[in-house]
Amino acid sequence: MSATLLDGKAVAARTEAELSERVAVIKAKTGQTPILATILVGDDPASATYVKMKGNACRRIGMESLAIELPASTTTRQLLGTIDELNQNPDVHGILLQHPVPSQIDERACFDQIALEKDVDGVTCLGFGRMAMGEEAYGCATPQGIMRLLEAYDIPISGKHAVVVGRSPILGKPMAMMLLGKDATVTICHSRTQNLPDLIKQADIIVGAVGRPEFIRAEWIKNGAVVVDAGYHPGGVGDIELAPLVERVAAYTPVPGGVGPMTINTLIQQTVISGERSLGQD
Ligand code: NAP
């Protein structure tokens, strides 16, 4: 069997072309450009790179980004104040708070300070709850990007057994709710799960969101499964041992070039949607 490569890079590039046109229409009709505000706290190099990539993606589609950099010593109160200012700034259509923030900051409180209509990264409890209930909300960017990728390749989800390994607020949990929302039967696994290999063996769709290189072994995954790997580690490997699988699964996300490009693409897509709504162009 020849597996389908779920090419996030290609889907993201196609979507960028479409988003560029939508941004041009907003500009022509309103004279305004959607703006994504990015907040980077501290000097973690990986976080700085992610924020830079998000700013670059905005510019590629003709959108602007407002980069806010705060020192590592920033307090929760100061960060809440910055988010309040961005909430009230009518020129800002989306707010991204780069995760993780330094440990003295209450990250959850800061995520939840983001106004729902500007929560284009889908990190607020309110947005999560609305999404989980099937109400309108911007999806959390990484799992929403995965759902868009599965949809782009017409991967059947309804009635399938999806096993999500990981339950973090920005990935595993919303991933599970999104798959449930598309009528999958969902098993969520985490560090206390017993018999992980046995559960994974039942998966029609397996999502690796563990944060440990090749932690999920190829031998645990059944023939014909759909394999989604959110991880990315030095050496170009993900959370799933992929090489032995490519000949015997139905579809898989490459690492890199699968989930990663879809995350940023979803963030900018949701910012464009927010810009269209706020500027009366939706
Ligand atoms: P995280 O917050 O560290 O969460 C990891 C999850 O894995 C936790 O729920 C943890 O369980 C679970 N886990 C840890 N050890 C386990 C074990 N032995 N067996 C089963 N489950 C175990 O990580 P994250 O932020 O969700 O990220 C997960 C992966 O996705 C990472 O590789 C990260 O780099 C990647 N990621 C990629 C993107 C992207 O845009 N491509 C975005 C975000 C994350 P407990 O809850 O019990 O601790």
Topology record:
Layout: E1 4-5, H1 8-30, E2 35-41, H2 45-60, E3 64-70, H3 76-88, E4 94-97, H4 107-113, H5 125-132, H6 141-152, E5 161-165, H7 172-181, E6 185-189, H8 196-201, E7 205-208, E8 226-229, E9 251-252, H9 259-278
Parallel strand pairs: 1-9, 2-3, 2-4, 5-6, 5-7, 7-8, 8-9
Helix pairs in contact: 1-9, 2-9, 3-4, 6-7, 6-9
The structure holds NADP nicotinamide-adenine-dinucleotide phosphate.
List keywords for this structure.
about 280 residues, Rossmann fold, 9 strands, three-stranded parallel β-sheet, alpha/beta
The CATH homologous superfamily name of the largest domain equals: NAD(P)-binding Rossmann-like Domain
Give the helix/strand class.
Answer: alpha/beta
What is the number of helices? Answer: 9
Order of helices and strands: EHEHEHEHHHEHEHEEEH
- What fraction of the residues are assigned to beta strands by DSSP? 5-15%
How far is the first residue's CA from the last residue's CA? 43 Å
Mean pLDDT: 97
Named CATH topology of the largest domain: Rossmann fold
How many structural domains are formed by the residues?
Answer: 2
Structure in words:
The chain is an alpha/beta fold and 282 residues long. It has two domains: 31-122, Leucine Dehydrogenase, chain A, domain 1 (Rossmann fold, 3-Layer(aba) Sandwich); 141-259, NAD(P)-binding Rossmann-like Domain (Rossmann fold), CATH 3.40.50.720. It is built from nine helices and nine strands. The strands form two sheets. A six-stranded parallel β-sheet has the order 1-9-8-7-5-6. It has a three-stranded parallel β-sheet with strand order 3-2-4, with helices on both faces. Helix 2 (45-60) packs across helix 9 and helix 6 (141-152) crosses helix 9. NADP nicotinamide-adenine-dinucleotide phosphate (NAP) is lined by residues 142, 165-168, 170-172, 189-193, 196, 209-211, 230-232, 239, 259-260, 263.
